[in-house]
Amino acid sequence: MKALDRLGITDCFEQIICFETMNFNLSKATRPEEIPVILKPSMEAMNIAIEAAQVDPYRTLFLDDNVKNIAAGKAVGLQTVLVSSYLYICVFTICF
Protein backbone atom coordinates (compact mmCIF):
# COMPACT_ATOMS: atom_id res chain seq x y z
CA MET A 1 0.00 0.00 0.00
CA LYS A 2 2.79 2.44 0.84
CA ALA A 3 4.39 1.95 -2.57
CA LEU A 4 1.09 2.63 -4.34
CA ASP A 5 0.57 5.71 -2.18
CA ARG A 6 4.07 6.99 -2.99
CA LEU A 7 3.41 6.51 -6.68
CA GLY A 8 0.04 8.21 -6.35
CA ILE A 9 -1.84 5.35 -8.02
CA THR A 10 -3.85 3.89 -5.14
CA ASP A 11 -7.06 5.28 -6.65
CA CYS A 12 -6.41 3.37 -9.88
CA PHE A 13 -7.49 0.11 -8.23
CA GLU A 14 -11.00 -1.03 -7.32
CA GLN A 15 -9.66 -3.25 -4.55
CA ILE A 16 -6.28 -3.83 -2.97
CA ILE A 17 -5.64 -7.07 -1.15
CA CYS A 18 -2.67 -6.89 1.19
CA PHE A 19 -1.37 -8.24 4.49
CA GLU A 20 -3.83 -6.15 6.51
CA THR A 21 -6.88 -7.23 4.51
CA MET A 22 -5.91 -10.90 4.64
CA ASN A 23 -5.09 -10.82 8.36
CA PHE A 24 -7.78 -8.48 9.67
CA ASN A 25 -8.38 -10.62 12.80
CA LEU A 26 -4.81 -10.28 14.10
CA SER A 27 -5.66 -7.21 16.16
CA LYS A 28 -8.21 -9.30 18.08
CA ALA A 29 -5.64 -11.89 19.15
CA THR A 30 -4.47 -11.89 22.75
CA ARG A 31 -1.58 -14.28 22.05
CA PRO A 32 0.67 -14.44 18.95
CA GLU A 33 -0.19 -18.09 18.26
CA GLU A 34 -3.94 -17.59 18.65
CA ILE A 35 -4.61 -16.62 15.04
CA PRO A 36 -2.38 -17.95 12.24
CA VAL A 37 -0.79 -15.33 10.00
CA ILE A 38 -1.48 -15.70 6.27
CA LEU A 39 1.46 -14.73 4.09
CA LYS A 40 2.60 -15.02 0.51
CA PRO A 41 3.88 -17.24 -1.04
CA SER A 42 1.56 -19.78 0.58
CA MET A 43 -1.09 -21.28 -1.66
CA GLU A 44 -3.62 -20.50 1.08
CA ALA A 45 -2.80 -16.80 0.81
CA MET A 46 -3.16 -16.85 -2.96
CA ASN A 47 -6.50 -18.67 -2.82
CA ILE A 48 -7.85 -16.35 -0.10
CA ALA A 49 -6.89 -13.33 -2.21
CA ILE A 50 -8.59 -14.79 -5.29
CA GLU A 51 -11.75 -15.51 -3.31
CA ALA A 52 -11.72 -12.06 -1.67
CA ALA A 53 -11.38 -10.36 -5.05
CA GLN A 54 -13.99 -12.67 -6.62
CA VAL A 55 -11.92 -13.03 -9.78
CA ASP A 56 -11.07 -15.74 -12.26
CA PRO A 57 -7.37 -16.40 -11.61
CA TYR A 58 -6.81 -17.21 -15.28
CA ARG A 59 -7.96 -13.68 -16.19
CA THR A 60 -6.17 -11.86 -13.37
CA LEU A 61 -2.79 -10.13 -13.42
CA PHE A 62 -0.61 -10.56 -10.31
CA LEU A 63 2.38 -8.24 -9.92
CA ASP A 64 5.09 -8.87 -7.35
CA ASP A 65 8.77 -8.23 -6.79
CA ASN A 66 9.53 -11.66 -5.33
CA VAL A 67 10.20 -14.74 -7.47
CA LYS A 68 8.69 -17.11 -4.86
CA ASN A 69 5.45 -15.12 -4.80
CA ILE A 70 5.34 -15.13 -8.60
CA ALA A 71 5.77 -18.93 -8.60
CA ALA A 72 2.89 -19.31 -6.13
CA GLY A 73 0.73 -17.03 -8.26
CA LYS A 74 1.46 -19.09 -11.36
CA ALA A 75 0.66 -22.28 -9.42
CA VAL A 76 -2.90 -21.07 -8.75
CA GLY A 77 -3.37 -19.96 -12.36
CA LEU A 78 -2.71 -16.22 -12.13
CA GLN A 79 -1.10 -14.30 -14.96
CA THR A 80 2.07 -12.91 -13.38
CA VAL A 81 4.59 -10.13 -13.83
CA LEU A 82 7.82 -9.91 -11.87
CA VAL A 83 8.59 -6.26 -11.20
CA SER A 84 11.85 -4.84 -9.93
CA SER A 85 12.94 -1.71 -8.14
CA TYR A 86 14.24 -0.50 -11.52
CA LEU A 87 10.69 -0.58 -12.89
CA TYR A 88 9.41 1.34 -9.86
CA ILE A 89 12.03 4.03 -10.44
CA CYS A 90 11.22 4.25 -14.16
CA VAL A 91 7.47 4.46 -13.56
CA PHE A 92 7.96 7.09 -10.89
CA THR A 93 10.27 9.12 -13.13
CA ILE A 94 8.03 8.92 -16.20
CA CYS A 95 4.74 9.63 -14.42
CA PHE A 96 5.90 12.40 -12.16
UniProtKB/TrEMBL annotation:
SUPFAM superfamilies: HAD-like (SSF56784). It comes from the Eukaryota. It comes from Solanum tuberosum (Potato). InterPro entries: HAD-like_sf, HAD-SF_hydro_IA, HAD_sf. The gene is LOC102595274. This is Protein SSM1.
